[in-house]
Amino acid sequence: MTPLSYTPDNTGLVVVDPYNDFISEGGKIWPRIKDVAEANNCVPHMQQVLTAARAAKLRVFFAMHHRYREGDYENWKFVAPIQRAAWHRRSFECGTWGGEFRAEFVPAPGEIVASEHWCSSGFANTDLDLQLKRHSIQRLIVIGLVAHTCIEATVRFAAELGYDVTVVRDAVADYSDEMMHAALEINMPNYASAIVTTHDIVAALAV
């Protein structure tokens, strides 16, 4: 594999959906993701990557899922299954602990929170692409939740838009090992230039 190399002038870290509901004990979705997330130390690895990116002066962008609000989807003609599930669970409910950033991932001053995505892609119907382009970002390092939905959809869309994408395989998680395998071994290799470990990324950013 070509040695990993990233520079702050054109590389950004994209952190996807670090909500309490996803990655904190007591979160609504944590019980579904806990086994896989704990097996690969997803949350500590996400913290390590974020810390390394900040130390390397990379710009940090947060791609956050739409937080549930009363009345969401009620007058929509069509609601995708993944949206219907979030609606019924009241996932990431606005104004509640579950809809807040986990404490370790609260954006620092100057870091950018893109407008919330309604389905899975951090790019679809948001300003993420605009924000990246405004800051001359061409290469992305992606971490967060969930591998086969928001991570994969964001990575696919990024490739369509011409970004070079790296996924940190042990800084993402999913509901099962099978879903992780499908996302990381079958689907995303078609779109991500590199799928690497936290150790790899941290070492590359320290150079």
UniProtKB/TrEMBL annotation:
<dbReference type="GO" id="GO:0016787">
    <property type="term" value="F:hydrolase activity"/>
</dbReference>
<dbReference type="InterPro" id="IPR000868">
    <property type="entry name" value="Isochorismatase-like_dom"/>
</dbReference>
<dbReference type="InterPro" id="IPR050272">
    <property type="entry name" value="Isochorismatase-like_hydrls"/>
</dbReference>
<dbReference type="Pfam" id="PF00857">
    <property type="entry name" value="Isochorismatase"/>
</dbReference>
<dbReference type="InterPro" id="IPR036380">
    <property type="entry name" value="Isochorismatase-like_sf"/>
</dbReference>
<keyword id="KW-0378">Hydrolase</keyword>
<protein>
    <submittedName>
        <fullName>Isochorismatase family protein</fullName>
    </submittedName>
</protein>
<feature type="domain" description="Isochorismatase-like">
    <location>
        <begin position="12"/>
        <end position="198"/>
    </location>
</feature>
